[in-house]
Amino acid sequence: MLPDESAPDSPARDPRDPLAPDLTEPAGRGRLVLTVLAVVFAAIGLVSLAAILATAFLQGTVWPGFVLASYFCLPIAFLLMAALVVWSVLARRRS
Questions:
Q1: How do the domains of the chain map onto residue ranges?
Q2: Can you say how many angstroms the Cα of residue 31 is from the centroid of all Cα atoms in its chain?
Q3: DSSP assigned state of 14
Q4: In this predicted structure, what is the pLDDT of residue 84?
């Protein structure tokens, strides 16, 4: 190619990002639901853990609901996030 020549046209690129989840498919919506659930459970667990620490710092009596929320919500959020990672790995292997 000479400096005066224009560059050849590149092949048409797919405008959709191949890494972005397709939310129109049921699998994309399922992944979105799991992601939202994981974030909600993690947020509830972290807020309850912060409430436990704040109550202990103020030398008050900790409400058992905060303890139960942190005991259950954080592990559930972790398991949901692990499931999302496994789901993504399996989806990439299929494509």
A1: 26-94
A2: 9
A3: P
A4: 95
pLDDT digits (tens, 9 = 90+) for 12-63: 545 566 656 555 566 678 899 999 999 999 999 999 999 999 999 999 999 9
Residue 73's CB is within 10 A of a number of other CB atoms, namely 20
Going by the DSSP 8-state scheme, the letter that residue 39 receives in this structure is H
Q: What is the 3-state secondary structure (H, E, C) of the chain?
A: CCCCCCCCCCCCCCCCCCCCCCCCCHHHHHHHHHHHHHHHHHHHHHHHHHHHHHHHHCCCCCCHHHHHHHHHHHHHHHHHHHHHHHHHHHHHHHC
Q: Determine the distance from the C-alpha atom of residue 28 to the mean position of all C-alpha atoms in its chain, rounded to a whole number.
A: 13
Q: Which of 41, 53, 54, 48 is nearest to 66 (CA)?
A: 48
